[in-house]
Amino acid sequence: MSEPFIIAATGCPTGVAHTFMAEEALIQAATKRGIAIKVETHGQVGVENGLTREDIRRATGVIVAADKDVQAERFAGKPLVDVGVSQAIHDPDALIDKVLARAKEGITSTADDDTDAMDHDMFATNDDGTATGGKKVGRAIYKHLMNGVSNMLPFVVGGGVLIAMSFLWGIYSADPESEQYNALAASLKTIGGAGLGLMVPVLSAYIAESIAKRPGLVIGFITGMIAMQNGTGFLGGIVTGFLSGFGMIALAKALEWMPKSLNGLKAIFLFPVLGAAIFGLITVVISQPMAAISTSMQDFLSGFQDANPIVLGIILGCMCAFDMGGPVNKAAYVTGVALLADGNYQFMAAVSAACMVPPIVIAIACTIFPRSFEPGERRAGWVNYILGATHITEGAIPFAAKNPLVVLPILMLSSSIGAILSLLWHCGSPAPHGGFLVLPIIENPFGWVAAIFIGALVGGLLYGAYMTRRMHRLQGEKTAQPSPSRTHSGTPAPVAVGSAASATPNRPDNGGQHRKTESPSAVLQTAAQPSADSGDVPLIVDTTITAADRDSVLREISQLAALGGHITSADAIMAGMVERETQITTAQTDLIAIPHTKNAAVNHPVIVVVRTPEPVSWTGDKPVRVAVGMLTPDSGGNTHLKLLAKLARGLVKSDLRTILLNGSEEDIRSAIHKQLGD
């Protein structure tokens, strides 16, 4: 078999963070193993690093790591692994192993258990006749829906912000009959309105495109436009998207009897004409009951406009956060806009507050609990400050979609608090949109801002606490019960975190000998700033530890660094290394791992090498016997990158790996010094 060449396609619903995290994880994993790889990304800016026909032709296998449509039909006949984007981030090596195994066994995409069961048949079966299963159908529905949401979001953001900007010149600045009229403001509102007006058709079109490709795209646009014009809102976009997609697949099957020589006629004439007529008429029929749902909710809300502020606030908060831009949210919003004509500004202010809270909840959680989120999630979360401030609720959708049963109640509670406080403090908004950009015309602006941030802060704390607990559960952390230290007799002894002088007596081994470090001066001079270029980084080596799992090894590294006085908090270092392993495992394929963290609790760069008598299970059940821990200060510039680069180059050499696995502590120390000094 020739040298393997893997191709991959990644894409997440928003096309911002996870798309590129998955790309990086796959590239790093393949590079470490000497495997050539090319990764195509489907982000918000479009397809980058696109796969050519030649790439596909010569590929050994294909990895599709996406929660949206990435045109996987291109890879028919190739060994294919199709998973969600997060799986590529957390365990890329397993995906590489799987696709290589399938290539070796000659299993192609037509018989791949992981391929999308709904691309052409909702009730598809595998080649052996077994059903693909409910989970596969559910994931396919989610993928189609997220393909629509992903393509819709830029229209929502662009249109919503431009409309908000138009209110800077006044609430009636787009009305030619008003004294506030401004031509630029009117143009901005027109452009923004056009963007938002395309939201439902685009959602419908790209759900259908994910299911039925270009024929579905065309009919999805048409039916989505009908749904929007008939007042069905967000709900209409979802229903018509799936209707058009699956409907076009059914139509294609119904026309299979036609000779292949007429395929061109079908594509250019029969599909658009018959599809538009059939599914357009169905949309017209079902639009009325869908619109009635929205209208009934609006009438229901109008009856509560003079109700108790707490009751009304709870209703508005729950509706606005329930589907964040969906039909329930839009019913509350449209009711608020309608009541503006009656001079009820407080209702609109409460609706706006409830709509602005969810994205700010996400942003606050990512700010207060940064370690509970992956780096890409944090970056996407912080963007929600801007989205929330400009009244764009949809920024919270990707976060809520991961666990709606937990996250949606938190967001609904938060929005309710914001709406209740806005009503109690008699805040009023004559503007139907704009967020904080319309503060100059808000009645009681300070109370309104306070209501929004109090609601968002409560939700941010709850959501952050949930994510922290979830992270700890997934990682199996037991930070409340750190592993006890050992004495030479095997009896546990307490660990002191502080200077080397005070800590060392608590942790002797090997017949009473203290842990061996590079030199006493290197251990005690914690104020020094060793250079990664000169090889004078303090080095701690211990080949006598016993550990049951990955976290036990990481805890040993943290405590050894604390004993030497190189760090100020063993728990912080432990958490930093665990977080890094959760993102992308550092375990190699030769029983060696390189855990590392860039952390404010590190006084200066230090390397800690530990070895266990037997391999322990690492992330993804990889066996690891030697862990080379690299700890660098948060303000250490690119020191950690230099250390990583030098050690990674050295680990390619079999002699260094052999020494780490079998050599004495002195041999290990000498070999690493030599590698860092080269």
From TrEMBL:
<keyword id="KW-0597">Phosphoprotein</keyword>
<feature type="region of interest" description="Disordered">
    <location>
        <begin position="475"/>
        <end position="536"/>
    </location>
</feature>
<keyword id="KW-0598">Phosphotransferase system</keyword>
<dbReference type="GO" id="GO:0009401">
    <property type="term" value="P:phosphoenolpyruvate-dependent sugar phosphotransferase system"/>
</dbReference>
<feature type="compositionally biased region" description="Polar residues">
    <location>
        <begin position="478"/>
        <end position="489"/>
    </location>
</feature>
<dbReference type="GO" id="GO:0090563">
    <property type="term" value="F:protein-phosphocysteine-sugar phosphotransferase activity"/>
</dbReference>
<dbReference type="InterPro" id="IPR036095">
    <property type="entry name" value="PTS_EIIB-like_sf"/>
</dbReference>
<dbReference type="InterPro" id="IPR013014">
    <property type="entry name" value="PTS_EIIC_2"/>
</dbReference>
<keyword id="KW-1003">Cell membrane</keyword>
<dbReference type="GO" id="GO:0005351">
    <property type="term" value="F:carbohydrate:proton symporter activity"/>
</dbReference>
<dbReference type="GO" id="GO:0022877">
    <property type="term" value="F:protein-N(PI)-phosphohistidine-fructose phosphotransferase system transporter activity"/>
</dbReference>
<feature type="domain" description="PTS EIIA type-2">
    <location>
        <begin position="534"/>
        <end position="675"/>
    </location>
</feature>
<feature type="domain" description="PTS EIIB type-2">
    <location>
        <begin position="6"/>
        <end position="101"/>
    </location>
</feature>
<dbReference type="GO" id="GO:0005886">
    <property type="term" value="C:plasma membrane"/>
</dbReference>
<dbReference type="InterPro" id="IPR002178">
    <property type="entry name" value="PTS_EIIA_type-2_dom"/>
</dbReference>
<feature type="compositionally biased region" description="Low complexity">
    <location>
        <begin position="490"/>
        <end position="504"/>
    </location>
</feature>
<dbReference type="Pfam" id="PF00359">
    <property type="entry name" value="PTS_EIIA_2"/>
</dbReference>
<feature type="transmembrane region" description="Helical">
    <location>
        <begin position="345"/>
        <end position="369"/>
    </location>
</feature>
<feature type="transmembrane region" description="Helical">
    <location>
        <begin position="191"/>
        <end position="212"/>
    </location>
</feature>
<feature type="compositionally biased region" description="Polar residues">
    <location>
        <begin position="519"/>
        <end position="532"/>
    </location>
</feature>
<protein>
    <submittedName>
        <fullName>PTS sugar transporter subunit IIA</fullName>
    </submittedName>
</protein>
<feature type="transmembrane region" description="Helical">
    <location>
        <begin position="446"/>
        <end position="466"/>
    </location>
</feature>
<dbReference type="InterPro" id="IPR050864">
    <property type="entry name" value="Bacterial_PTS_Sugar_Transport"/>
</dbReference>
<feature type="transmembrane region" description="Helical">
    <location>
        <begin position="405"/>
        <end position="426"/>
    </location>
</feature>
<dbReference type="Pfam" id="PF02302">
    <property type="entry name" value="PTS_IIB"/>
</dbReference>
<dbReference type="InterPro" id="IPR006327">
    <property type="entry name" value="PTS_IIC_fruc"/>
</dbReference>
<keyword id="KW-1133">Transmembrane helix</keyword>
<dbReference type="InterPro" id="IPR016152">
    <property type="entry name" value="PTrfase/Anion_transptr"/>
</dbReference>
<feature type="transmembrane region" description="Helical">
    <location>
        <begin position="307"/>
        <end position="325"/>
    </location>
</feature>
<feature type="transmembrane region" description="Helical">
    <location>
        <begin position="233"/>
        <end position="255"/>
    </location>
</feature>
<keyword id="KW-0762">Sugar transport</keyword>
<feature type="transmembrane region" description="Helical">
    <location>
        <begin position="152"/>
        <end position="171"/>
    </location>
</feature>
<keyword id="KW-0472">Membrane</keyword>
<dbReference type="InterPro" id="IPR003353">
    <property type="entry name" value="PTS_IIB_fruc"/>
</dbReference>
<feature type="domain" description="PTS EIIC type-2">
    <location>
        <begin position="141"/>
        <end position="469"/>
    </location>
</feature>
<keyword id="KW-0812">Transmembrane</keyword>
<dbReference type="InterPro" id="IPR003501">
    <property type="entry name" value="PTS_EIIB_2/3"/>
</dbReference>
<dbReference type="InterPro" id="IPR013011">
    <property type="entry name" value="PTS_EIIB_2"/>
</dbReference>
<keyword id="KW-0813">Transport</keyword>
<keyword id="KW-0808">Transferase</keyword>
<feature type="transmembrane region" description="Helical">
    <location>
        <begin position="267"/>
        <end position="286"/>
    </location>
</feature>
